[in-house]
Amino acid sequence: MQLSTVFNSITLIGMMIVIGVALARVTPINESTKKTYTLLIVNVAMPCIILSSIFKVNIDQSMLRNIGIVLILSVVINTIGIGIGWVFASSFSGNRRLRQEIALLSGLGNTGFIGIPLCAAILGPEGALYAAIFDAGVDIVIWTVGVMILKNSYAFSIVNIKSLINIPIVAIIVGLLCTFINYRPPEIFIDLSNQLAALASPLAMFYIGLLIMSKSENKSAIKTTNVNIFSPIFSKLVVLPIITLFIISILPIQMDVMINKVLLIQAMMPSLTLASILFTKYSKDEVFGAFATVMSTIISLVTIPSLILIFIKFKYM
After folding, report:
1. CATH number of the domain to which 35 belongs
2. Calpha distance 39→42 (Å, rounded)
3. In the chain, fewer beta carbons within 10 Å around the N or the C end?
């Protein structure tokens, strides 16, 4: 992995976030604005980056095996991250009130908005495909383990299963199905998916910038900056990547180097952008969730390249 590519990608992400902040200063920020960005990113740009990656990669039996490995390890890694956050929150009396929020913020990362575009920039189409599969694992954990924790109910339901059906997941299924039956769509469709895929990174970073600006102006959010906020941030940005490295090192199977890189990069992602929306839905502290997401995103601009540099130096990536 070229260090220059890593730092260029992180620098571009930072610059696009700054543009998002600037846009927020001249454009009214409301729920309609956020909803428009989210719809474009989740329902247009993200599916296209997934399809574009699938059409650019020659998927064989070995890659299908790798896809299965990434999906399983994604579920395992994210669930372990939630467990780490739960332990951290339970260890300090001041954190127990926010135990559920801290647990989810510690384990669930922004693997879609930031992770997939970053892996595409650093690792190419194959990396983007594995990153999308990892993100599908995050969705599985969100709507099963995550919802159970937020509802204090530990039983599966049809509603949770239905929540797993979204356009990015459908894009993965359709793309892989096309590969199975050896069908290649018309070139105009492939060109369209390639061009719309290019929107994913800018739109996602602009949205993060808007979120940062909107929360920085929220005085009640700023008041939550205390010891509680640093527990999930430290767990997500530092502890989970190290745990992921340990998991990779003890696995009894030999994995493709590309898989190792994707798993480590996705484990480094800041806390889930949609956390505050989830917390609102289940009557949890959405202000804490939003501010933790913003703070972890800003800090991750330093921790991601730093961890990648360390892992490359010791030949883990």
Report:
1. 1.20.1530.20
2. 5
3. N
105: containing domain? 3-313
- pLDDT tens digits, one per residue of 22-40: 888 887 777 788 788 888 8
Q: How far is CA 180 from the centre of its chain?
A: 27
**Cα 72 to chain center, whole Å?**
16
Q: How many domains does the chain have?
A: 1
The identity of residue 68, as a single letter, is G
**Rounded-to-integer distance, Cα 223 and Cα 285, Å:** 13
User: DSSP letter at 109?
Assistant: B
DSSP state of 268: T
Instruction: Return the CA Rg of the chain.
Output: 19
Closest CA to 3 of 122, 120, 114: 122
pTM for the model: 0.86
Residue 124 burial by Cβ neighbours in a 10 Å radius (0-12, 13-18, 19+): middle
Closest CA to 44 of 202, 211, 274, 213: 202
Rounded to whole angstroms, how far apart are CA atoms 97 and 285?
A: 10
The answer for residues whose C-beta is within 8 angstroms of residue 3's C-beta and 6 or more apart is: 308, 309, 312
What is the residue whose two structure tokens read 């890659």? 63
Beta bridge partners of 109: 271
Q: Report residue 229 as tokens.
A: 């906020």
194-207: pLDDT as tens digits: 999 888 888 888 88
- Per-residue pLDDT in tens (0 to 9) along the chain, 317 residues: 667 778 888 888 889 888 988 888 887 777 788 788 888 888 898 899 889 988 888 888 889 999 999 999 999 999 999 999 999 888 875 566 788 999 999 999 999 888 998 998 899 999 999 999 999 999 889 888 888 888 877 666 666 667 667 888 888 889 889 888 888 899 999 999 999 988 888 888 888 888 777 766 655 555 545 557 888 999 999 999 999 999 999 998 888 999 999 999 999 999 987 787 788 777 787 778 878 888 898 899 899 999 999 998 888 87
Q: Which two tokens stand for residue 6?
A: 């890593």
